[in-house]
From TrEMBL:
Species: Camellia sinensis (Tea plant)
The protein's name: Exostosin GT47 domain-containing protein
Residues covered by region (Disordered): 66-96
Pfam families: Exostosin_GT47 (PF03016)
Top-level taxonomy: Eukaryota, Viridiplantae, Streptophyta, Embryophyta, Tracheophyta
InterPro entries linked: Exostosin, Exostosin_GT47
Location(s), subcellular: Golgi apparatus membrane
Family: Belongs to the glycosyltransferase 47 family.
Primary location recorded for the protein, binned into one broad class: Golgi
Membrane topology value: Single-pass type II membrane protein
Length: 469
């Protein structure tokens, strides 16, 4: 009932203040409060003693979070079946019910309270409240090319038939985003109610199409497509493109918007190549997307005490001066696994047996190494200036990673050895908490990479109202 009330408050909440609940809502609200208090008391009394809590198994901790985002039933879940009826008009196949997401969110709150962690967020409470507004209200319209399979460039627009194909590699996030969006509860077929418009072309698919392939042809194609939708539909002209967005991941996409002025100046680019020095990246307008490799789901993490190497890094040293310097300084250090060229052990093992994993700028600032480190529970050490880290307005990266200026790389080992055991463990806890933000699911799950990215769009809603004047 409460949920139905929230939904009815309208799909454009940014335009008005909060209205007060009417008297007939007070009873259900009170019931909800009582239920929440009972749940919290139960959770607290069933916790282990603080002494034991200190020795909590960190792999358990990770599992708890896994559970909280899966589809377990709970009391709170039963309160809200309403929002699904609202979704009846969407084209999305089997969206994940909002009620289920709220249920798992409630569990996360209990977890945070009971473990007394300020956690890896700038402000979890504010974020969570606004995020839930987003779940209920954000609407995205997808241009119909994504559903048309008989046009000549259909493959450029259709969702990838197998986004998990390991051959996709660095482009995985681009395909995973589109697939997740189409399976989410945010898609609407009623363009009039949409906050945003998705242009469903795939840079990776163009790269693999011999008719396009080159950087030049790709940017021509993208410009033509933008002109096409702006003449066939009224939405582009209404905002000058400011409420339109597209996704791309990895180098070839960086120039895609270069042949269309409004596309690169006004539309939102959701991109893995989110660094301040990229010519076509505009921070605050554009959105940083985590670059993720398709990795098998991996539930058990190697705990801190089983990580006996200080550092892991593997990557081509010739890609940057700074990598060369790191190799020259510590290539032979027995405490550190630092390699250029072939490894003598599996790549994953490097992440599993080290406390810290280096992310050192090569040709590009972004690589999948950051998400790999997060995936395998290795604290990321980021040595790549000007990287607009994904979700940095929500996540406080200093709570679960170490950021070192390229100028200070000579002090790398000293800096890492000076981190106290307590601080390391806190970072490790926080790293476990942020793992869910660096994963893709089909259909998407609450707080995963898709919904975190959608939240970035939510923060940019309404700007088009200014630009259309
Ligand atoms: C941590 O969990 C793992 C897997 O469940 C178990 O094998 C191990 O004994 C646990 N360690 C501690 C200290 O409880
Ligand atoms: C929670 O953590 C803060 C800061 O570390 C500490 O001051 C406070 O005493 C803790 N509260 C509880 C209930 O453990
Ligand atoms: C594609 O299919 C639609 C309906 O299925 C049809 O209306 C349209 O003419 C077809 N286009 C081409 C180029 O065959
Ligand atoms: C949008 O503007 C362009 C350029 O001014 C124009 O060619 C196009 O017809 C307009 N689109 C619509 C739907 O009116
Ligand atoms: C590392 O070891 C190799 C082989 O022993 C040697 O050639 C190289 O100079 C050493 N590098 C450093 C930085 O000490
Ligand atoms: C590294 O591995 C690749 C493929 O496994 C192989 O082709 C190459 O020769 C190896 N390089 C060295 C220096 O061993």
């Amino acid at each position: 009932m409460v949920l139905r009330y929230l939904v009815r408050r309208g799909s454009r909440p940014q335009q008005g203040g909060r209205s007060r609940p009417s008297p007939q809502l007070l009873v259900p609200l009170l019931l909800l409060c009582v239920l929440m208090v009972v749940t919290v008391v139960f959770e607290i009394t069933s916790r282990v003693e603080p002494q034991q809590q200190q020795h909590r198994n960190l792999t358990r901790l990770e599992l708890e979070l896994e559970e909280s985002t899966s589809s377990r039933s709970s009391n709170i879940k039963d309160l809200g079946a309403a929002p699904q009826t609202k979704r009846a008009t969407t084209r999305a196949p089997a969206p994940v019910p909002v009620a289920r997401q709220l249920a798992s969110d409630a569990k996360d709150n209990n977890w945070q309270r009971n473990n007394n962690l300020s956690g890896p967020y700038h402000n979890w409470r504010l974020f969570k409240a606004d995020y839930q507004e987003m779940l209920h209200n954000l609407r995205i319209y997808v241009y119909p090319d994504v559903f048309i399979n008989n046009q000549s460039f259909a493959r450029v627009f259709l969702p990838h038939p197998n986004p998990k194909d390991p051959k996709i590699g660095n482009y995985f996030s681009e395909h995973a985003f589109k697939t997740a969006l189409l399976g989410s509860s945010l898609v609407t077929s009623r363009a009039e109610e949409a906050h945003f418009f998705f242009m469903p072309f795939s840079i990776n698919a163009m790269r693999n199409d011999p008719r396009l392939h080159s950087v030049k042809s790709i940017s021509d194609f993208v410009a033509q497509y933008t002109n096409r939708i702006s003449s066939e539909f009224k939405f582009w002209n209404a905002s000058g493109g400011a409420d339109h967005f597209y996704a791309c991941c990895h180098s070839i996409g960086r120039e895609a918007a270069s042949k269309h002025h409004d596309l690169h100046n006004s539309a939102i680019q959701i991109t893995c190549s989110s660094s301040y020095f990229q010519r076509l990246f505009i921070s605050h307008k554009d959105v940083g997307l985590p670059q993720v490799w398709p990795r098998p789901p991996h539930q058990l993490l190697n705990p801190p005490h089983a990580r006996n190497k200080l550092v892991f890094f593997a990557g081509r040293k010739q890609n940057s001066r700074i990598r060369e310097k790191i190799l020259a300084s510590w290539g032979n250090d027995t405490l550190m696994d630092i390699f250029s060229g072939n490894l003598s052990f599996p790549y994953e093992e490097g992440f599993q047996r080290s406390k810290y994993c280096l992310h050192v700028k090569g040709y590009e600032v972004n690589t999948a190494r950051v998400s790999d480190a997060i995936h395998y529970g290795c604290i990321p050490v980021i040595i790549s200036n000007y990287y607009d880290l994904p979700f940095a307005n929500v996540l406080d990266w200093s709570k679960f990673s170490i950021i070192i200026s390229e100028e200070d790389v000579a002090f790398l080992k000293k800096i890492l050895l000076s981190v106290s055991r307590q601080r390391y463990l806190t970072m490790y806890h926080n790293l476990c908490l942020v793992r869910r933000h660096f994963r893709w699911h089909t259909p998407p799950r609450s707080y995963d990479s898709f919904y975190m990215t959608a939240y970035q769009l939510w923060l940019r809603r309404g700007l088009q109202l200014l630009s259309s004047n």
